[in-house]
Fold this protein.
Amino acid sequence: MNATIDPERQLGQLVEDNPDFARVFESLDIDYCCGGTVSLATACADAGLEVADVCDRLEAARSEGDGRERGWESLTQLANLIVWEHHRYLRTELPELEALVEKVARVHGDAHPSLRKVETEFRDLAAELSTHIDDEEQTAFPIIKKLDTGVELTVAERETLWEEIDQLEADHDETAARLERLEELTDGYAVPDDACTSYRSMLDRLAELERNTHMHVHRENNVLFPKAESKLD
């Protein structure tokens, strides 16, 4: 029998326990990644939602899914999962989507001026994400993986990892802000009546980028980094 959902549990803890909850929070525009340390009760109050109603939706998601985070049992495996499911996706999707955003802004920008702001915002987001994932793979993740080996980190490695985590979490906040601006500029990825196939595709892919990045940030902010930090203490 499933345990009753505790409204005082943090959002990040709830999604860590059951990844199926992520889609409920996405649908309600509840920030479970950068806002993962906020309790469910507080998040509901801030959003003007009834806790009981949200718990009912979470229970439904739990009954429909298998509730398991697949593919990792160690920090190394989780870091590898992040690279496989999020970094690989970004390296393929960002350049393709950037070209599509530029095309849609060029063709439809006169009728929809906000698209020019979408183009600028996305270009900055893509550049920042590309730098971010390179930094993770080249600096933070190798040190985090070393924690799994039982070999003691050097003083320099410990200091570097603390600094990296602080910077990466700050990057996540900026990424979240840019994604929010993109959602606002596209009116929640709403499809205009005059949208062509490319325009529709752009909106669908921007929405998917947001969902993928939310899970990416959750896995780092609420799981990988705290577990790594606990081994540094």
Summary: The chain has eight helices and no strands. The mean pLDDT is 92. The chain has two domains: 11-64, 75-232.
